[in-house]
Task: inverse folding
């Protein structure tokens, strides 16, 4: 599960949209909304990767 924590933090730190070409191809270009959703998902991945010990 350590991968999920690392991945979550890495994506939160990145200010580029994952799969931006795909989003553009379906006509969804709300960059701010996509970045917010991506940060939320990354926070969940980070949290899931940090189980209590």
Result:
């Amino acid at each position: 599960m350590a991968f999920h924590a690392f991945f979550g933090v890495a994506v939160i730190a990145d200010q580029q949209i994952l799969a931006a070409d795909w989003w553009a191809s379906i006509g969804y270009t709300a960059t701010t909304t996509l970045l917010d959703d991506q940060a939320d998902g990354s926070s969940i991945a980070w949290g899931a990767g940090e189980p209590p010990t």
Q: What stands out?
A: The chain has a mean pLDDT of 85. The radius of gyration is 13 Å. The CA atoms of residues 16 and 50 lie 24 Å apart. Residues 2-48 form one domain.
